[in-house]
Amino acid sequence: MFKLEIEGPVARVVIDRGEKRNAIPIACWSALERTVNDAAASDARLIVITSADPGSFCAGADLSELPALIDDVKKRHIFRGAMSSALARIRAVGKPTLALVEGGCFGAGVSLAMACDMRVAGPNSSYAITPARFGISYPQPDLARLAELVGPGQAARLLYGAETIDATEAHRIGLVELICHQAQIGADMIERIAGNAPYSLCALKATLAGRFGVDKRFDDAFASADFAEGWQAFRSGRKPSFGG
Question: Residue 229: pLDDT above 80?
Answer without folding.
Answer: yes
